[in-house]
Write a structure and sequence with these properties.
Blueprint: H1 3-14, E1 20-27, E2 30-41, E3 45-50, E4 66-70, E5 83-86, H2 87-90
Antiparallel strand pairs: 1-2, 1-5, 2-3, 3-4
Amino acid sequence: MNTYFQQALQDDQRVKVGMRSFVYWTNCNHYYRGEGKIAKVNAKTVLVELTKPVAGDYGGYEVGRTISAPRALNYKKWSVNNRFALDETAGQL
């Protein structure tokens, strides 16, 4: 099994509002990585509020912006490019 997915399943079981995390997403053929905190946990997604700005080609993403990332249990939407990782584990991936 993919180690990213194994770690994502573990993070999925431990995630709580307020935890620090990294969020990875794509938009218009660009890949982004941001740092933030979990703002909301839904059944299929996690909302991460950015705590640091993320530079981008079209102005980037400012602090406070909320990014939606799929949970690992939503495996049809989850990928290594669209996911969240809790702060303790993101450095190990």
